[in-house]
Design a protein that fits this description.
Layout (H helix, E strand, L loop, with lengths): L2 H11 L5 H20 L4 E3 L3 E8 L2 E4 L6 E4 L2 E8 L1 H7 L3
Antiparallel strand pairs: 1-2, 2-5, 3-4
Helix pairs in contact: 1-2
Length: 93
Amino acid sequence: MIRSELVQKIADENPHLFQRDVERIVSTVFDEIIEAMARGNRVELRGFGAFSVKKRDARIGRNPRTGESVSVEEKHVPFFKTGKLLRDRLNGG
């Protein structure tokens, strides 16, 4: 499902809301999750999962084309851990 499909589904299920308001709500939720993660905070949505940021240390990597050693800088990557309810639903529970 892509963002526009999510907006459309929510708008269809809530005919009392204008589509532009649903778009604003979805954008606000995503923006708040992104901002919290950018500050290094964890975002937990009960029953769904938790978004967090993990730090990857600097390392020496290899260029797969040439085999040459390259320096890879430290970076922060998003991480998602599923909640129990989501995991159970995916596994037929």
